[in-house]
Amino acid sequence: MKIAPEVLARWEQFKSEKQDGLMETLSISVTEVGSGSVKASMPVGDATRQPFGFLHGGASVALAETTASLGSWMLIEPESQKAVGLEINANHLRAVADGKVHAEAAILHQGKRMHVWQIMIHDDRQRPVCVSRCTVAIIDR
To answer: Structure pTM?
Structure first.
C-alpha cells in the first residue's frame, strides 16, 4: 500500500471512520492514494461476475465510483463537507473471466462544488477493460 505523505493523516482518518459496505462485499482493495489519484484492485470471482461468467459491468462501475469517491473525500474537509456521486458513465472494452482488475482514478477537475474523475480499469495483463468518468458533488454537511 502506497500513501502519499500529504494525504497520510486523511487516510488514517478514513480508515478509522470507514464502515463496511460494498468495498468489502466486492473485495475492493485500495493500493495507492495520493492527492488527486487513487488506485485499487478487485478480484473477478463469484461476487463480481454476471450470469455468463464474465466481470459484471456494474462491478466495474462500483470499482470506478469507489475510487473517485475516495479520491474526492481525500480532497475535501469531511468535518464540514460530503462527497457524493452525481453522475457516472462507463465504456466496457473487454470481457474478463478471472484474475483481478485494477483501477486508476485521476482527477480532471477540482472545483469547490464539483470534482470530475477519469478512471481507467485494466486486467492483470494491463489490457484496458473499462474507461469511466465520474462526477462527484461536494456538498455542505
So the answer is: 0.96
